[in-house]
């Protein structure tokens, strides 16, 4: 007889909702994953893709043992080896590289395939710090906006999303909520029942735009102009809160002068919105309270992403929204729970912390460097052969015969194809770890739900064992996951973590950050002036370096996430592939001009490369804009390769961030 058991877990994916999961198990296998009904935010609801986690966890393609390359790079030819052999290959090669080229010739390449702190920023960091490896600037996601927001607000803190049921107007700006932040939609729907209006500002009439009460379709990258235009109208119409401005902000007079240069007619030309639409939007935002701004990644993946976010984040201060229940903004809330990173990562072990570093957006470029070459790459929690821009250079670098590449993953991803050694990773269901969300305010513990499959090892175990093989005898490499979780929580300088213990998390599964006792808004703003900075010394620089629109190619391509995949995760699951289409949306007049019909294959190309996709003609996109969604794995049979063959590795104005969406292409109908 079989018995079903039920377990609590945490969704490990790079998604703001960080859901609490209820896992059903039978005969040692996970049979069902659902939302935990007891978690205050998850409240029993999760997305469809994570309901397919049992299929992913027990997928026949899961990597189960280490492998070594037998053929040419790029060919997917591997043979099974033992962990002992794998460790021997890796450590002997690392030792040789360090001896000949120095430890900075070894580069870890990781992101947040698993958001657990122990397995994404824990033992791995200790290991590479102790080695003295080259530093990786982890900038591929949201650093442009994070830096921009910081200029205004000091750090990544916004309002508690649970409060947004009380908002009366909700502006979703560059965020595809229905696909990327499900529980914010649930709160917004509750607010709507209480009379709130939902506004979406986007370049694509996507499912989130269709759900909204008001949709403003703007030209890509024109968000900074729109923010200026709104501020212009707010000030002109006195829809601002002077008491709040005087008390909590600095630089209002200078801002006032700057926004004079953005009258509605000019902003209309820059954004593509009609003058009446600008008035309507400004009036809604300026006269309805409390108002909530949800700032997404869409506008940050442009060259002016820093400036746009910096300007948008001035809006709730002008209207005096901070401190009102349901009023304010939320770009990211990761700044509340500050782990004790010193204890976790031991930066003191690095012999040369200010040594060379590589921006992960420019990994392709970095791999071409012959003066100070990267000789080894250790990839985990990421799939650079799909997700990084300028793929032609990335792949060229990965093909280098003298580059020693190790990839640790659950599946044989496109990055593995270039690996010398492939290592099997556990799923998070097999690990002990701790999670925070960059949106809601709960810390959660994930205890293992099942035994490790095959010979899989967690990142924690892998780097701990590698440290021993490298003869790193520092005590911190003896730590257990539990020790490290206790270390992470032990941070007296983070008042919000105060009182949250391992024991409590083990008992309850989660704990809410203590925001009420240490309210940030609006008394304590962690900027230099201690105020919300409406003007900053950075502005002049940002205005000067504002990138002119470079329109050598007639179309701007926006290649964002889709609904059923999570970056390139899940893209190899047939049940989810079946619900998505690797198509490119094109406006009817552009299609007509190029004699293209829905279903035709078109080649998208620019100086960096070319990609072939099926066209779908739709008025949901504007003229001159092309939209494709999802990071699909390579499919040689269908001649479909990473969309990032077209995206540039130029960096954003702030934060050295990715500029995936400042991407210009031309098209040809394939014969
Ligand atoms: N289903 C699903 N969920 C995900 C992910 C996934 O891949 N799939 N990825 C996760 C990760 S890592 C992240 S960072 C987040 C990202 O999630 P979001 O913050 O939602 O960011 P994007 O989906 O990249 O873009 C959001 C919207 O911005 C629009 N946009 C593009 N350019 C512009 C512009 O210039 N101005 C304006 N106003 N809008 C623009 C796009 O059309 C899109 O609708 O989602 C996370 N959640
Ligand atoms: N064109 C375009 N490119 C983009 C984006 C876009 O919108 N458009 N979005 C960008 C953004 S916002 C982001 S955040 C990046 C995301 O880029 P990545 O962080 O590379 O995300 P994924 O593609 O999901 O790859 C994560 C990998 O980690 C593996 N993994 C999961 N758990 C573990 C584990 O515990 N251990 C190990 N070793 N591996 C594990 C997964 O199997 C998966 O292969 O992509 C960026 N690339
Ligand atoms: S991907 Fe996001 S919405 Fe889906 S279960 Fe995970 S945290 Fe929740
Ligand atoms: Mo991201």
Account of the 3D structure:
With 671 residues, the chain is an alpha/beta fold. The protein folds into three domains: 67-140 and 337-512, Rossmann fold (3-Layer(aba) Sandwich); 143-331, Dimethylsulfoxide Reductase, domain 2; 548-669, Barwin-like endoglucanases. It has 26 helices and 27 strands. A six-stranded mixed sheet has the order 5-4-17-16-15-6, covered by helices on one side. The chain has a six-stranded mixed barrel with strand order 22-26-23-25-24-27. A hairpin with a 2-residue loop joins strand 2 (20-26) and strand 3. Helix 5 (123-131) packs parallel to helix 21 (459-469), helix 10 (223-236) crosses helix 12 and helix 10 runs parallel beside helix 15. The longest helix has 19 residues, at 83-101. It is globular and about 70 Å long. The N and C termini lie far apart (60 Å). The model has no long low-confidence stretch (mean pLDDT 96). The protein binds ligand MGD (2 copies), iron/sulfur cluster and molybdenum atom. The site of one ligand MGD has 32 residues, from helix 7, strand 9 and strand 22.
Keywords:
671 residues, alpha/beta, Rossmann fold, Dimethylsulfoxide Reductase, domain 2, Barwin-like endoglucanases, 3 domains, 6-stranded mixed β-sheet, 6-stranded mixed barrel, 30% helix, globular, binds ligand MGD, binds iron/sulfur cluster, binds molybdenum atom
